[in-house]
Automatic annotation (TrEMBL):
Annotated protein name in UniProt: Glucose-1-phosphate adenylyltransferase
Pfam families listed in its UniProt record: Hexapep_GlmU (PF24894), NTP_transferase (PF00483)
Transmembrane regions: none
Gene label: glgC
Domain Nucleotidyl transferase: start-end pairs: 8-261
Subunit comment: Homotetramer.
EC number: 2.7.7.27
One Gene Ontology term of the molecular function aspect: ATP binding
Species the sequence originates in: Clostridium tyrobutyricum DIVETGP
Length: 383
């Protein structure tokens, strides 16, 4: 295979347990987002837009729908003869095999795949973050610093630092300490889970980590701290822009609602940095004679006869007469009958909500999982 300067590995195998019933039968990166996308579309589109056309997607939990969505990568211009996108599940060898034990082990099990392209650098990404980023700028920074490792960081509010790996740096952005979800913090630079490694060096650390039976085989808990202890040249790359880890119901709902803001930082309409996805052939949306839509996204394939206010309606959805959808996310192919009220909810795919039902109270987020049939007159609140 042709040598590559850099290739990307997207970690997309997590169960996503914090998304509850939305990921009961679906890998987290395959969860619908923003009316027409899947979460993983952002990492794939960023790679393509950055000129990185060799991408491995490491799957594990409930991968069928994710694999089907990615296909041969044509939606992201990744159906390349010399490179392209590869689905990389765990596999069995003659001497046995294991599920991916952690993020570092997932890369370790695919050393042979990476070596086939003999890259100088490996870009490691998470498949469940919403953001737009030019990885080429980060690679340029990595080269200028003559770094062994570069970690993308973003400033987060101090009260949220406990959720992230926190990077402590000197003035030149060299990293002297990495703290995994600390209680007390020295900085508010949070790791975005976007890493560039010099491949030959990373390979040595992955092999040493695999031989350490007490290791969690994780980048944040093991590889990064071990590299710091050994004195490798590690730098933090400061990212300015919108970024959100959508690993919880709250953050998934918030990220969808952020798209409806007038000052929306993500700007999915930017012609210079498109977010690509699989475009199913759907008829144009139909807005009924008494429908009322405000501050919302409603994509092709929708039929809306009721009221939609500050909500996101995916393709194939039907909103019945006199129904009200407020501050909610309605995922693909969900049918909502007449006289239904849905207020501050996330409703999964292929749901049927029959007439006269109520979902949500407008206070906390109510979730309805996919493929549910909500009987007529039902009341769902904080399920």
């Amino acid at each position: 295979m042709k040598k590559k300067q850099i290739l990307s590995m997207i970690l997309a195998g997590g169960q996503g347990s914090r998304l509850g019933i939305l990921t009961k039968k679906l890998a987290k990166p395959a969860v619908p987002f923003g009316g027409k996308y899947r979460i993983i579309d952002f990492a794939l589109s960023n790679c393509s837009n950055s000129g990185i056309y060799t991408v491995g997607v490491l799957t594990q939990y409930k991968p069928l729908e994710l694999n089907s969505h990615i296909g041969i990568g044509s939606s992201w211009d990744l159906d390349r003869r010399d490179g392209g996108v590869y689905i990389l599940p765990p596999y069995q060898e003659e001497n046995g095999g294991n599920w991916y034990k952690g993020t570092a082990d997932a890369i370790y099990q695919n050393i042979t795949f990476i070596d086939n392209y003999d890259p100088e650098y490996v870009l490691i990404l998470s498949g469940d973050h919403i953001y737009k980023m030019n990885y080429g700028d980060m690679l340029k920074f990595h080269k200028e610093k003559k770094a062994d490792v570069t970690i993308a960081v973003i400033e987060v509010p101090k009260e949220e630092t406990y959720r992230f790996g926190i990077i402590n740096t000197k003035q030149d952005m060299s990293v002297y300490e990495f703290e995994e979800k600390p209680v007390k913090v020295k900085s508010t630079k949070a790791s975005m889970g976007v890493y560039i490694f010099n491949w030959k060096l990373l390979k040595k650390f992955l092999r040493a980590d695999e031989n350490n039976k007490s290791s969690a085989n994780d980048f944040g808990k093991n590889i990064i701290p071990n590299m710091l202890e050994m004195g490798v040249k590690m730098y933090a790359y400061s990212f300015k822009g919108y970024w959100k880890d959508v690993g919880t119901i709250d953050s998934l709902w918030e990220a969808n609602m952020d798209l409806l803001r007038e000052d929306n930082e993500l700007n999915l309409g930017d012609p210079d940095w498109r977010i690509y996805s699989v475009n199913n052939v759907e008829p144009a949306q139909y807005i009924g004679p008494n429908a009322n839509i405000k501050s919302s996204i409603a994509v092709d394939g929708c039929e809306i006869y009721g009221e939609v206010n500050h909500s996101i309606i995916f393709s194939g959805c039907v909103i019945g007469k006199n129904s009200k959808i407020i501050d909610s996310v309605i995922m693909p192919n969900t049918k909502i009958g007449d006289n239904v009220i849905i207020n501050k909810a996330v409703v999964g795919s292929n749901v049927t909500v029959r007439r006269n039902s109520i979902i949500g109270d407008g206070k906390q987020i109510t979730v309805v999982g996919s493929n549910v049939d909500v009987k007529s007159g039902s009341i769902f609140v904080n399920v």
